[in-house]
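Forum: Protein Structure Q&A
Topic: Joint prediction for protein chains with partners

I've read a bunch of threads here and the consensus seems to be that you should model interacting components together rather than docking separate models afterwards. I'd like to see that in practice. Below is the full input, 1872 residues plus whatever partners are listed. Could one of the regulars post the assembled result?
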Amino acid sequence: MIPELGVCYYPEHWDEAMWAEDAARMVETGITWVRIAEFAWSRLEPVPGHFTFEWLDKAIGILAGHGLKVVMCTPTATPPRWMIDRYPDMLAVDGAGQPRTFGSRRHYCFSHLGYRAESVRIAQALGERYGRDPRIHAWQIDNEYGCHDTVISYSDHAKTAFQGWCAQRYGDIKTLNTAWGNVFWSIEYTDFDQIALPHLTVTQPNPAHELAFRRFSSDQVTAYNRAQAQALRHATDAPLIHNYMGRILEFDHFDVGADLDIASWDSYPIGFLSDRLDASEAHKAKYLQQGDPDMQAFHHDLYRSVGKGRWWVMEQQPGPVNWAPYNPAPLEGMVRLWTWEAIAHGAEVVSYFRWRQAPFAQEQMHAGLLTPQNIPAPGMTEAAQVAREIAQIGAITQKKADAALVFDYASDWSWTTLPQGADFTYFRLVLEAYKAMRRAGLTVDILPVTARSFDGYDVVLAPGLAQIPDSLTQTDSKVVLGPRTGTVTEELRIPTSDTSPLPQFSESLPPDHKRSVQDAGHVVHWQETWDVADSDQTIISDDAGKAVLFESDGQFRLAAWPDETLWDTILGQLIAAKPTGDLRVRTTQDHIFVINYTNEDQSYEGHKIKGCDLAIFKDGSRIL
Amino acid sequence: MIPELGVCYYPEHWDEAMWAEDAARMVETGITWVRIAEFAWSRLEPVPGHFTFEWLDKAIGILAGHGLKVVMCTPTATPPRWMIDRYPDMLAVDGAGQPRTFGSRRHYCFSHLGYRAESVRIAQALGERYGRDPRIHAWQIDNEYGCHDTVISYSDHAKTAFQGWCAQRYGDIKTLNTAWGNVFWSIEYTDFDQIALPHLTVTQPNPAHELAFRRFSSDQVTAYNRAQAQALRHATDAPLIHNYMGRILEFDHFDVGADLDIASWDSYPIGFLSDRLDASEAHKAKYLQQGDPDMQAFHHDLYRSVGKGRWWVMEQQPGPVNWAPYNPAPLEGMVRLWTWEAIAHGAEVVSYFRWRQAPFAQEQMHAGLLTPQNIPAPGMTEAAQVAREIAQIGAITQKKADAALVFDYASDWSWTTLPQGADFTYFRLVLEAYKAMRRAGLTVDILPVTARSFDGYDVVLAPGLAQIPDSLTQTDSKVVLGPRTGTVTEELRIPTSDTSPLPQFSESLPPDHKRSVQDAGHVVHWQETWDVADSDQTIISDDAGKAVLFESDGQFRLAAWPDETLWDTILGQLIAAKPTGDLRVRTTQDHIFVINYTNEDQSYEGHKIKGCDLAIFKDGSRIL
Amino acid sequence: MIPELGVCYYPEHWDEAMWAEDAARMVETGITWVRIAEFAWSRLEPVPGHFTFEWLDKAIGILAGHGLKVVMCTPTATPPRWMIDRYPDMLAVDGAGQPRTFGSRRHYCFSHLGYRAESVRIAQALGERYGRDPRIHAWQIDNEYGCHDTVISYSDHAKTAFQGWCAQRYGDIKTLNTAWGNVFWSIEYTDFDQIALPHLTVTQPNPAHELAFRRFSSDQVTAYNRAQAQALRHATDAPLIHNYMGRILEFDHFDVGADLDIASWDSYPIGFLSDRLDASEAHKAKYLQQGDPDMQAFHHDLYRSVGKGRWWVMEQQPGPVNWAPYNPAPLEGMVRLWTWEAIAHGAEVVSYFRWRQAPFAQEQMHAGLLTPQNIPAPGMTEAAQVAREIAQIGAITQKKADAALVFDYASDWSWTTLPQGADFTYFRLVLEAYKAMRRAGLTVDILPVTARSFDGYDVVLAPGLAQIPDSLTQTDSKVVLGPRTGTVTEELRIPTSDTSPLPQFSESLPPDHKRSVQDAGHVVHWQETWDVADSDQTIISDDAGKAVLFESDGQFRLAAWPDETLWDTILGQLIAAKPTGDLRVRTTQDHIFVINYTNEDQSYEGHKIKGCDLAIFKDGSRIL
Ligand SMILES: [Zn+2]
Ligand SMILES: [Zn+2]
Ligand SMILES: [Zn+2]
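Posted by a regular:
Agreed with the consensus. Here's the joint model:
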């Protein structure tokens, strides 16, 4: 597959007179895809039922006329003002019970069936007009589900739907009471319609209640997306895509992805470092203008899995953004590096957000490839360079990775509901495991808990996985379970069957409390105390003699949260690691990509790789 | 008195088939008391008016059949779901005006008279059935009043009741206006029904208004508890108990205690260190897995006073809990140490919470004496050891302490309302005084401001006491007043009568601002400037020459908040201190208890006391 | 002009029997002005329509009888309780949608026309009775507009008024849509009555929407004040004053000031250091008991401008206050120093708040010149000393300053709405520029953006000014624009006309990220990258070679936020600085004032100036 470049474009933001020149410059830059109509509902249907597609027809004509392939969007992330008049109760409700009002975007509750029907209606209308149009090569549904904390809604619509969901899942109310352990504090219900949403309680609600509500909330996103997908399936054969946002965990992306053809995500390395990375201040300072060296790769590998092999970067940061607490500029070379890194992980398309910086509204300080004055911004030059380099490098083919990591959304919901320690964060735990694998030189596949097989890997890590699937205990791969893996049931209870091995007890530890593991690192955040059987083999113990890593029945159990050094020790024990220092290495069928996120020269097998630069090797030779 | 051990048990959480074995194991462990039915309302009255006592009868039969003494509880901390249908307005309302909903516990407003009547009704029903049952040896009313911030409620019921309370207290509205100084910002009322609850105002409401509301809120708890106590008095002669929670200050425990026979409290040393101790990070790290060395003792001494000599630990932490920000395990020996420390301070019973860890609901990560798999947890072994040791040591008799400390709930409310410095915290001030007394080797009585006499002590400390009772100025004990003592009236005004000695002015100091006191420590947080009369004697001055401790008319005035070193200096000046370093010493009629909260060996008069261990001396010999 | 002293007095707080002695002591202290009736509405009109002026007549009689000049206040900051019965919807509404209730002060929404009419009515009633009374020498309207965040209100009254304001400003809804760029996220309106207030949205509302609402909110304050001012104009010829509070930025003081005769402000140096100064902990520790050495001077210069030359300190801190997080006492000499500093900057009157500390209500811990026991507090002595010194020094005449600084409220609203970096704070930026000018020995004028001319200054700084007025580009003064100056339009868009020079891109930087500027300091918080033309002259570059200060078309462009050292470097390049170290120097027609805010001796041209002391020079000789 030869990767391609794209760009996000909003013709409705600009004078028609500019469209042709814009299209010409896109082509000149080496861009082949253009995404449009994402937020344009007020221009497509300014009055309910009255469509004004003419301007869009014209824009498509100009763009496609220059040879660009169009990604058409359903504009459902931005319902227009008249929709609120029609459905005043369509707004989501926050945890404090306040409606989240009109005036920005994503102002809808996933449980509102009236708005869901409207979303289907606009998707149908677009499908009817453009579904068979050969200039439209792909469709995007909505934009960034879950962004701005929009999955969870405490609306009355959500409450009614949740009660029905419970009735469906549990059949009768006694089953629910038993499953949740409602006897605990006399919370037993006699009817499904007594079940409120789990907020505003005096102290913590029943975690089983909370987890059920999170499962339900995720299911509502899936159902909402499916409704649009089904509408479009009737109208088009082009692939359907959603653009997920980084580190959004409130809905199951694998579930949504099952109804779509391609997964895509929006990659903002510097924004994410600022606003959603758990890391030390020193680490954040080191990578302030580059982004974390594993955060993007993690998402690339995740969405390759969500997309069943097919995935894009739908929005690529091209310069400073506007929405993080602090917004420095990427160092020179980083836009190119990010693009190449996505390609190394299998991206079919990397699409920059956005063509030209808007001089108005919320994102006016968000860079584009062009400035508001229509002057090329630094990102433009780097995009053009990548386009030239792609032409030079040619096709890239993915292969099965050395190692695998299990990632499970419901596990995140479980530990968010029952953290036991104030900073126990599933995403952080998994990302730290991923980082350790990358430091060990491994190329990684990320797999859902529902993967049919985990066979054929050097090692499979499954930290913090709420339940252990049989496929994971019956694989030929070396499997590492823990910390916390398999310690709760799907109903968020401690398993009491004999077959579930469990620690004697678990401890959460405050941030500054580190427990030494014999010069091999430290236990941080979390430690379990296991009764290690005589038949088991302890591989690593802490200074107090507690088993930190042990083998039992052919599986490895990690009984603690390791710091960086301890992770390296652990992987060193399990596999033949090839430590890469500050570099990151990804191997495909024919190429080796070596990426330098630091701002200093690094050396890789005798080759110098400059700061913010990468090398590509093929057949033992450096070809870039 | 020979102390005993108990345990908290929830038969309704377990299969009936397990009850007999549980009872047998309790007895085997050396446990003699078992508390039941605390949260079982939904099982005792699943439908309004329809009681199902049969299961409880059976549980009592089994437990008592094994020789255990039963503590019966009224389950009013967990009103069942149907109660909310009956009284939708029974929920408390938070400071933002939001009802605090059903779904956890303590979901009731103390001012709701309908729910109060229901509480009396269930207490009566239980009293009728079990009041004269000789197997029931004591009663617990409700559970942990005030836990989860549940004393203060801004409901309409609270508002109406507060207006009535004001009418009762002040008689006519002009008296209230004058008492509160409402002229200040034209807040004068013309009718009691104009008085709102003091929240959601533009800036601080009148502190007199806020203090009155806090007095009222405390009175509502007392009235609520009294209603249940009166109902049970008719039905039983067994002692009535409430289990107070650590560091709950929003109601006057002495007032509630006056209607009961025994005070008890729930002691969670490691949880409290994490979530409600004011201390440095270094101190918290040192005692992370032991708890603060004075926090428990303080509460023991407090509840001995609240219980007029009779008190229990109703819930004793047996392992890691689930509700603190971080939940590490107790170090080996600590469960035993905590139990012995309570006994040293006069506990009649120490009862572990809970028998077996629940595998479901909110507290599933809270350790019990048994794991959910029914395997003994570490706490079990230590409890059994204490039982054997009690048998060996025999009776322990309390005696009047060397020194006294005055503790007053209304003072806390006064300074919370009028802190003047962002971190001025009455509890912290008093606990630091208590710590200083303990470091000086003193055995301490804690007394309410209403104590008839303060006579017969080497020293009586009264820091931060809002008003000074006559009994405190007319005692033969050495009394230390201050800082801030006697500087406001009951209506939270500065006293203007000539007889109230007052500082010229007072200063609150930011955390890092310390004022040196001539190599004898520092003033922190608070300093007063007094016009020391010629007839007074200045004992300690700061480097700027200001009196920090002086004697006036035979009383000592402490004009500042001392740091640890300065406290030691001050007590060294006033009494013959016997500094105990990191050890804590408590003297009873015949025994000396020496407690080592550190994790290292300590030495006491030539005896080595290991980390997390204690020694008991009798007639000069170590007997444990 | 010979400066005078005043005091704030509340006769209604005290027994009538005390008034005469109070007046006599005021006069004895050297006080000539007394402000009364500020919060007395409940005593002036206890029942709607029923006025009780008799007590006030009597108080005026006694005060004026002792020779004091009276400042009469309208008591509209404290509407009495019956007003709420009349207009339950007059309360302001906070950002969460909660009414801000009765029980403290400032409990009104500026958009409520019913309350506005009531305010006019009480002003008229006072005007009728006292407007021509020769004992009343000035009037104060309301108290501290905007204190306690009271400018912005999300009430329904505000919403309706805002819709009308928008209709007025934009004429038709399409113009508004275009101006705001509402197409961006399909936020286009079809009617003005669809426009909600910009709060509770899912993510950030349109910044143009937010800025419009802030402009509107400021206009409401102006209109409210104007209504009272007009009512009083008919009744009196005495000057009208408002007492602004320090660092209140939510309304345009120049707009309000245009309707008044004298500007005054309430100066609480130690309170402000604690609660509203952006500075390092070390700086705050150094000046803990003195206040920041520039914060007061900045406000003095600002209000001299707002008052078109005539200004007072209406409330001067006399000792510890009650409302800051921590409230230490001023060091000896500071009350005198603050008073003299105000005089140096041109204050006609410095009036202490308050005469006697109230022993009740919210501010009972706020010092007065007398303690509640009627004993002179330390501030009293210093006030008396200033009175004697004024008599000795005689008249002081202001002159045009060396340098000017542009200050613009709408710029603050713009950057608050669109900060781009979490700590980008306009006030801080401007105050740091002011501090740099003062460190360079400059006497400074603060000018509004509407100033007719900026001519005749050595240098004019305009940091963070949202738009650049023509008068600023057409002056004979050296003008420094930036950072961020002129980078947005009045509708908060990026200017796209060719004539607006703009950076290529801008970066916000996290607090610990500093960029070195060749041993001359650092760039912090903000940096712009400009395409410096060949015809421009780069004066200072950072280590990476980026222009930090450059000259273009005769104007200086500052492309970054400088730290203290870099500011000093910059000013050193532009003017002949006379660095004053820790001292501050202000030059008037005939005098030089040298102020020492430190607690240590400093030296000025061979003269020793003690800590917390000042020197006054005239004709080269030290006269104080
Ligand atoms: Zn996006
Ligand atoms: Zn409890
Ligand atoms: Zn004031």
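Residues 583-622 of chain C form a domain with the Immunoglobulin-like fold (CATH 2.60.40).
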